[in-house]
Amino acid sequence: MSAAEILVPGKAGEGEALVLTAPISFWGGVDPKTGRIADVRHPQHGEVISGRVLFLPGTIGSSSASAVLMELVHNGRAPAALVLHEPDAILLLGLIVAREMGWETPMAVRLERGQFERFRDRRASLGTGGAISLSTDSPVGTP
To answer: How far apart are CA 122 and CA 15, in angstroms?
Structure first.
């Protein structure tokens, strides 16, 4: 179990971990209707972030990132939780505004990037206190 710093409170989340290998821009990089990584230059192009615990090594800034994340929440396509190496105030603003609109939002936390890799290809659970744990010792897709 790893303790993470809560950046934006929200509902506890559980799902398959998606550990991104490169920073991403939400504006143009994530389709808010499908939750897919749309940036063809991103190493994980085509992966779906919806319902997954999304580990972000970094973001590529755009002032519209918050609007895309807010759309993902509104469309029911948001990640189950966001785990960031470094806080991105503009991105997180999308969660704050969505919460103010009364929408159920995922929690966002900060965790050292060196801890990301142990979650790859596993199910992760993020509790309301900011604790991140592996839901199973088996990789995703194995019994």
So the answer is: 8
